[in-house]
Write a structure and sequence with these properties.
The protein has about 80 residues and is mainly alpha-helical. The protein contains four helices and no strands. α1 packs antiparallel against α3.
Length: about 80
């Protein structure tokens, strides 16, 4: 599974949102009303599934979907 597919699955699980409904260019907090607790769940899911290190405050609800994919790519997730 690619990093994007993993992110889509985690967003589906945490936010109950289909991949085709994800707004990719607006901050998650604005686009999908993501709160801090949900961001922690997303971060933990990405760490676990992609086996990468992500700092506790590295992913923020002010990031867009595209920002998160960029962070994952920088960490070597593909």
């Amino acid at each position: 599974m690619t990093a994007e597919e993993t992110l889509n699955q985690i967003l589906k699980d945490v936010l109950d949102i289909k991949p085709e409904d994800i707004i990719r260019d607006r901050p998650l907090a604005e686009a999908h009303e993501v709160d801090s607790t949900e961001m922690v769940e997303i971060s933990v899911g990405l760490k676990k599934n992609l086996q990468i290190e992500i700092g506790d405050n590295e992913l923020k609800k002010t990031h867009t979907y595209q920002d998160i994919l960029g962070i994952l790519a920088d960490k070597g997730a593909s």
